[in-house]
Amino acid sequence: MIYKINLMVKNANNFDNIKGLFESNIFRKCNALSVTLRDEVADVSKINYCRDLIKNNTSIFSNFRGNNLLTTATNLSLEAFPEEALREVMKIYDKLKSEFSGSQYLILTAWVIYNAKERVTYDDAIRKMRKAYDIMKKNHFFLTGSDDYVAAAMIATTSNNIEETLEEIEECYNILKANGFWGNNNLQALSHILSLGNGSAKEKCEKVILLNKTLREKKIYIKNYALPLLGVITFVTNDFEDFLNKYMMTIKELKSHSGFGTFSLNCEVRNMIGASLVCSKYLDELKVMDINNDKIIETTNNTALTIVIAMQAATAAACASAAAAASASSN
Question: For 231, which of 107, 193, 298, 309 could close a Cys bridge (C-beta 3.0–4.6 Å)?
């Protein structure tokens, strides 16, 4: 775990050195987390180059600017050919705008589809996304909005049967709501993540309920926009006590570093970062394990890939929500 924590701290420090950076500490930490989860070191010069690349190819009022500028530049910096990647993401975004209203979440959605380009064509992904979103809106009219675009894209690029997947999501939502979870958008997001896991809706929900109980007994709360990470945790381990020990150690170590303390970062964001780092450590172990004598990392639709998708979706949505909340409170 120390390696993961040190990499996160190093990346956070690197993000503090990016030029012209007016984004909040939450934005910087979330993007540092994104790079860390890919086991990379943030390349300051390349991120600076990608910021300029975006500015030179978009208007001042573009959704690629503002809250999305740093995130998009960070994502581009991880690409071998950022110029080509930006062209493709902008192409996807233009296609999405013909079906959905433009928003900061639509940029994140374009990235989900771009990252799934080996599995599905852009047009098929958007068509399936439209179908998924319409069902989501029908099931939860007042809960479903532009912040659910990312989840709809995740479902569109991973599900073989949109209707069955949405039925399972609804079943998860109802089970968890009946067991003490507040019926809101965060619970809906958790249900979306659970659709990626193996097992029945009941089995997956039972794990989440047990995990939540275990955490709360220790007065640890992974909630609000970080709630979907509960689903990711149940994907990577069944030993919740072991997770708890690793998590508590990670949080303690993070708080000892500048920029991660009580006065620098709110508890929910720090908890999200800590949980994500521990999940990433478990995922590294999963990648080299034999499951039923099959190397799961060598298969196309493997458990490891599914967890990566779930983690990226959960953290991206959580970071966007956290940053939006921080931005609103500062206005």
Answer: 193
Interval 94-143: pLDDT, tens: 999 999 998 889 999 999 999 999 999 999 999 999 999 999 999 999 99
Output the 3-class SS for the chain: CHHHHHHHHHHHHHHCCCCCCCCCHHHHHHHHHHHHHCCCCCCHHHHHHHHHHHHHHCCCCCCCCCHHHHHHHHHHHCCCCHHHHHHHHHHHHHHHHCCCCCCHHHHHHHHHHHHCCCCCCHHHHHHHHHHHHHHHHHHCCCCCCHHHHHHHHHHHHHCCCHHHHHHHHHHHHHHHHCCCCCCCHHHHHHHHHHCCCCCCHHHHHHHHHHHHHHHHHCCCCCCHHHCCHHHHHHHHCCCHHHHHHHHHHHHHHHHCCCCCCCCCCCHHHHHHHHHHHHHHHHHHHHHCCEECCEEHHHCCCCHHHHHHHHHHHHHHHHHHHHHHHHHHHHC
Domain boundaries, the chain: 1-78, 83-330
| pTM score above 0.85 | yes
